[in-house]
């Protein structure tokens, strides 16, 4: 059970939070239309949003976005928070993978894009997200934690046009730790388990511990079957980080200007970071507390 202190009392204004129907219609309108320019898109969003109903109940769960460079552990923290808060964790990377392994309408198109190493277009991402949100709605879920989206200013603008984002958490880890962490990743070739063989122990000038991340060692039956992802090389990881920084900076600025960005420097691995993250979010993990007290 989670206690939400800071955000429970401060519901977002209603003007943009139109009915779920409008919401999906907007995603849909964007994803399936042949809008030729940003201006067209904006006018479509504006005309649609003017029909939103301010009288609709505000009773909904958090709508958060998680930002963070590849390898920072964004998925792990987003997933933990989503179980704590009872909202779906929607990772666009997962949506793409699920669609690829399905026989869905976009699977073959996606397979081609991915095999060519191209970025999946906004249109496809919106289509997948809209499908996922409809599925959530059918299950009676509300709110979400988005992971891997928005990735560009354009996506952030579209998202802003269709719903309110309450908070954007930007997870950060210093580059040397990030690099070491990415290079230490191993996958079990048999069960697909993810591990990390690197122990990060960065000390300051006086030799005092500054950042510690324990390795995540595999159980004995996986240990002999570990493989490294072919793209986890120093050059590839550095290039990935460079590209991430370049594209994420404007998205961070976008939310910073709106006062929605929460910068969070990870102080270490999950045991060090999780309680501090909850503190920063003004959340309490009662289950954790109770089990710790028992
Ligand atoms: Zn295994």
UniProtKB/TrEMBL annotation:
- The top EC class is transferase
- Which EC numbers characterise this protein's activity in its record? 2.7.4.3
This protein's GO CC annotations: cytoplasm; mitochondrion
Q: Which UniProt keywords apply?
A: Kinase, Nucleotide-binding, Transferase
Q: What's this protein's family per the entry?
A: Belongs to the adenylate kinase family.
Q: How does it assemble?
A: Monomer.
> Under what name is this protein listed?
adenylate kinase
């Amino acid at each position: 059970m989670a206690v939400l202190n800071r955000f429970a009392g401060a519901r977002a204004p209603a003007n943009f939070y139109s009915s779920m129907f409008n919401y999906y219609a907007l995603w849909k309108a964007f994803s399936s239309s042949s809008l030729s320019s940003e201006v067209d898109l904006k006018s479509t969003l504006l005309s649609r949003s003017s029909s939103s109903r301010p009288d609709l109940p505000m009773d909904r769960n958090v709508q958060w976005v998680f930002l963070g460079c590849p390898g920072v552990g964004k998925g792990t923290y987003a997933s933990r928070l989503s179980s704590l808060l009872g909202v779906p964790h929607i990772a666009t990377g997962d949506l793409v993978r699920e669609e690829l392994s399905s026989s869905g309408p976009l699977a073959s198109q996606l397979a081609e894009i991915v095999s060519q190493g191209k970025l999946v277009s906004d249109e496809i991402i919106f289509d997948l997200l809209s499908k996922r949100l409809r599925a959530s709605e059918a299950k009676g879920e509300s709110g979400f934690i988005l992971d891997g989206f928005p990735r560009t200013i354009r996506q952030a603008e579209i998202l802003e046009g269709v719903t309110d984002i309450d908070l954007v958490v930007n997870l950060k880890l210093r580059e040397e730790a990030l690099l070491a962490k990415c290079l230490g990743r191993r996958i079990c070739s048999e069960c697909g388990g993810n591990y990390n063989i690197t122990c990060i122990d960065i000390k300051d000038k006086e030799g005092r511990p500054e950042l510690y991340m324990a390795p995540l060692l595999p159980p004995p039956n996986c240990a002999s079957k570990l493989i490294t992802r072919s793209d986890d090389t120093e050059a590839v990881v550095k290039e990935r980080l460079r590209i991430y920084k370049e594209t994420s900076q404007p998205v961070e600025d976008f939310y910073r200007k709106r006062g929605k960005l929460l910068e969070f420097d990870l102080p270490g691995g999950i045991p060090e970071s999780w309680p501090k993250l909850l503190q920063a979010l003004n959340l309490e993990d009662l289950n954790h507390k109770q089990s710790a007290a028992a």
